Amino acid sequence: MTDYVLNTWYPIAWSREIGRKIEPRRIVEENVVLFRKEDGAVVAMEDACPHRLLPLSLGKLRGDTIECGYHGMTFDCSGKCVRIPGQEMIPPSAVVKTYPTHENMGLVWIWMGDPTLARTEDVFDLAQYHDPDWSVAEGDALYIKANYLSLADNLCDPAHVSFVHTSTLGNAASEDIPVHHEEQPGKMLTWRWIIDAPPIPLFAKFGNFKGNVDRWHYYHYHAPSIAIIDFGSADTGTGAPEGRRDNCMQIYACHFMTPVDAETSIDHWLHVKNFQATDEINKALSDQFRVAFAEDKMILEAIQMNEKTFADRKTIKIAIDAAPRRMRKMVEKMAGEALA
Amino acid sequence: MTDYVLNTWYPIAWSREIGRKIEPRRIVEENVVLFRKEDGAVVAMEDACPHRLLPLSLGKLRGDTIECGYHGMTFDCSGKCVRIPGQEMIPPSAVVKTYPTHENMGLVWIWMGDPTLARTEDVFDLAQYHDPDWSVAEGDALYIKANYLSLADNLCDPAHVSFVHTSTLGNAASEDIPVHHEEQPGKMLTWRWIIDAPPIPLFAKFGNFKGNVDRWHYYHYHAPSIAIIDFGSADTGTGAPEGRRDNCMQIYACHFMTPVDAETSIDHWLHVKNFQATDEINKALSDQFRVAFAEDKMILEAIQMNEKTFADRKTIKIAIDAAPRRMRKMVEKMAGEALA
Amino acid sequence: MTDYVLNTWYPIAWSREIGRKIEPRRIVEENVVLFRKEDGAVVAMEDACPHRLLPLSLGKLRGDTIECGYHGMTFDCSGKCVRIPGQEMIPPSAVVKTYPTHENMGLVWIWMGDPTLARTEDVFDLAQYHDPDWSVAEGDALYIKANYLSLADNLCDPAHVSFVHTSTLGNAASEDIPVHHEEQPGKMLTWRWIIDAPPIPLFAKFGNFKGNVDRWHYYHYHAPSIAIIDFGSADTGTGAPEGRRDNCMQIYACHFMTPVDAETSIDHWLHVKNFQATDEINKALSDQFRVAFAEDKMILEAIQMNEKTFADRKTIKIAIDAAPRRMRKMVEKMAGEALA
Question: Is the distance from CB of B252 to CB of B228 less than 8 angstroms?
């Protein structure tokens, strides 16, 4: 098993997906079921009956309890067995593991580590998500056959945009612009500015810039599984690099990663923008992101395969690797601390 | 390799499937071909030419011999090579392993163990199968991605019916009725009676009961691979529990299991009933069983997967496990004896 | 990893498949990209960027360089990195492995071993391929889930034709005719003559023989991956066995094998014949070969599977195995020499 950071809040599902039926999910190599109680709270349990290991996701929701689909053993929201049909005595070991959950930003978050350390105030938040001057649109839960840290590499790496996303998020103007980075506690910030250059295709399509723009990409990575890409543009010469970004187009592309197993991750993505958007515009924007993230997916999955094919190949490092490499050390340290 | 009981007769195919062509099958992790000789007897051989290991199932039936599809080496029904094209000398090691077979109850039975111990009088039989007062209908060869002993668990376990087969073979009335069991040499009997309760859906549909019934389920498991489920109902108060079952509806649901490999089994099932049935009724009954056995299949396959996912998880035991646990010990002992 | 002969020219693609785009191929368990330079020469490189291992086949061809699809690192035809966007310094280890290539007989050939030993004059050639009195038709690149040496066994074995290819290349007349063989440096010749027998189906269809023919099969195997099957027929009594083959029908069925990995090979096949053929005739002939080679594929793939199923089974040897066994020793010796 990979060493995952366990004492952290991971996104596991869209809130809208969880209701009054039992939903199975997989995260950090564990199988989990989710359902919404009658009072609306989300419950998470291990997806296995302690009797014969039948997935509880094949059982029935009875009020706020799950009845196993094989012999009717029934478990309440704390995981305690409250019924074994045909017998009075319930063994004290008849318990299913449960996990703390919380909802924010349209997502269900789960805590897979020591439950006594789970504080809901630590669940990630982005202020603009709740700001009426900004608008929000949910994207997809993108399934990627690659380790989530390979996706995290990508999200500490503004440079790839110039080559991978040329039809949407990048263009040739940025190819040779160096990337900066700064490590902060539990975070990695990478960024670059492209000054006085044509707008990227997405902004050319949805903004109304007259000519060249000053464009920024700030990648805020929050270890281990969150990345907020702050990117935007303003007409060149209006002072955006100096901080006057009022009259600009700005988007937070938010990536909430679920590490499924060593070779699989899910990217729940959404976008928050400093302008109101019709459903139509939101759909059009999301379609642009879909194109871009499908490009990332193709690359990450191809790398995942080649990492197996060339298992003992020593790779070379270049300048833009500085941030991803420090990010990986940070995550490794976090995973190690929990074990110490 | 799993430790299989080898000195036993296993069902391997429906008799009607075996004719004048070479049929491949897999059982206890061995590959076998079957064909019917000109005199009607069924021959079983290993499915590999001893020369290059080409499956003999890709060869040709020539009279009562098989000609290998690669170089024409030809083997008679005893497995002896009788021709090597292009050479006179036939090496004495040019022999294919053969297996004893026998037919009964519409099935071909095979003996995978020591052939000197194979006695055709030991092939399983159910008297009612041949009784003109009873009628028979063959079901399917249901392919299940689970170990056959997991299926055997299920067939030593009347309790699951109340939760798994609620639309066909069970109903809520039996949920809390305890199960009895009794070990006999090479057999495990489990049973329960449900007194004065509504008939199960299958009997409500095909019987003509006026009101509540007394219902029985007797599961006769014959180690290692046969289970005969005797179940039926009679109008409450007519004395069925005391033995007066003349005016009742009774079915023997017969399960003949082929252990294919550690994770695969085939359940050849058929039903024998104490009433005559038109083809239409038989088909309708079989369709009900199909629904029920598909439910078992789903559960057994999910458990098989979770047993891998939670490979070192210690499960809990409840009252209804007594019979399956003793059944597994019995089979283990039988498998061990052959090795001793 | 299997021990492959590396210091040899292997066929890797049809020449017509390689143009101004990047084509991925796999050979001797290595992943390779091919493309044609602006001057027409074929370049072969390892299919992995030395930075993050992204397959270069997902990159872009820029003139005679490949730009990696992730960060734009660019490699020239010698494999040297000539650009890293965003930085000046190019580390000397930023190099992709390249492989010598050559074209002949409509195929691209590649040298996977020590490049200093690659001599293009050693690339296989068949004089008749270039002879205007003969005509050529390319067949397919047949993908076979079997080790290439199992295919080589088949191509040192004229005897199988009588049993495997009865509708095309063989008939019962040859079943009992012994096979001869002769080992030559780096070659294995196997052959037999069938005198005064009906023509095989393919010659009955495309030749105009009046009655019986004298037929020959000469299998010229060139270790490790080439086999030229010289087969033909002439009217019986016209002196073909004594060497007078002028008035005959003769075909060279050429097999150029690519060892992909231990369980996969590709057979690039074509035919060269001593008569002119319309496109229609060539297509009809190729269709006959397709039938025959699909039969070989089925047999080789079944054997490959059974070699796993019966991994420790000792097989028996018969007379026709002499040539394949010596062939295998020859190839083993060649593979070992490179390591010594």
Answer: yes
Least confident interval from A25-29, A168-172, C270-274 = A168-172
Q: What are phi and psi of B178, to 5 degrees?
A: -65, 160
d(CA B126, CA B272): 9
Q: Which residues of chain B are within 8 Å of residue A31 when distances are taken between CB atoms? A: 306, 309
Alpha-carbon span B28 to B46, nearest angstrom: 12
What token pair was written down for C236?
Answer: 């019986």
Question: Amino acid identity of C255?
Answer: H
Give the per-residue pLDDT at B340.
54
CB contact under 8 A, A175 and C85: yes
**Tell me, what DSSP letter sits at residue B199?**
P
Cα(A42)–Cα(A277) distance, integer angstroms: 30
B196: left (phi over 0), alpha (psi -120 to 50) or beta: left
What CATH number should be reported for the domain whose range is C9-121? 2.102.10.10
Contact A94, A109 (CB under 8 A): no
What was the pLDDT predicted at C207? 86
CATH number for domain A126-339, candidates 3.40.50.300, 3.90.380.10, 3.40.50.1000, 3.30.830.10: 3.90.380.10
| Token representation of residue A94 | 């008849």
Please compute the mean of the pLDDT values over residues C160-165 and round it to a whole number.
94
Domain with CATH 2.102.10.10 in chain C: 9-121
Secondary structure percentages of chain A, helix, strand, coil, to 5: 30, 35, 40
- Which pair of structure tokens corresponds to residue A225? 């599984």
CA distance linking residue B285 with residue B139, whole number of Å = 10
Which amino acid is residue B2, in one-letter code? T
CB C160 within 8 A of CB C192: no
Q: Could you give the CA distance from residue C112 to residue A87 in angstroms, rounded to a whole number?
A: 70
Q: Determine whether the interchain pair C309/B31 forms a contact, defined as Cβ–Cβ distance below 8 Å.
A: yes
CB-CB contact of A120 with A17 (8 Å): no
C256-302: per-residue pLDDT in tens?
Answer: 999 999 999 999 999 999 998 899 999 999 999 999 999 999 999 99
List chain C residues with CB under 8 Å of A194: none
Residue B45 has a CB neighbour count (10 Å cut-off) of: 23
Q: Where in chain B is the domain with CATH 3.90.380.10?
A: 126-339
**DSSP state for residue C93 in the 8-state scheme:** T
Q: Alpha carbon of A305 to those of A145, A266, C31, C205: distances in Å? A: 9, 17, 12, 49
Candidates A186, A145, A207; CA nearest to A326 is A186
Mean pLDDT of A293-301: 97
Q: Which residues from C are below 8 Å from A when comparing CB atoms?
A: 31, 47-48, 50-55, 58, 67-73, 84-87, 91, 93-94
Q: Considering CB atoms only, which of B53, B73, B85 is closest to C303?
A: B53
Contacts of range A325-329, beta carbons closer than 8 Å, 24 or more positions apart: A326/A181, A326/A183, A326/A188, A327/A152, A327/A153, A327/A156, A327/A188, A327/A221, A327/A223, A328/A149, A328/A152, A328/A153
pLDDT given for residue B110 in this prediction: 98
Taking an 8 Å cut-off on Cβ atoms, the answer to whether A313 and C72 are in contact is no
> Residues near C289 by Cβ (< 8 Å), separated by ≥ 6?
C139, C168, C253, C269, C271
Residue B1 confidence (pLDDT) above 80: no
Six-digit token string for A18: 């969880």
- Nearest-Cα residue of chain B relative to residue A94: B316
Q: Which residue has the higher pLDDT, B264 or C170?
A: B264
Identify whether the C-beta of residue A48 lies closer than 8 Å to the C-beta of residue A56: yes
What ipTM was reported for this prediction? 0.93
Enumerate long-range contacts of B121-125, CB under 8 Å, 24 or more apart.
B122/B9, B123/B9, B124/B9, B124/B222, B124/B226, B124/B256
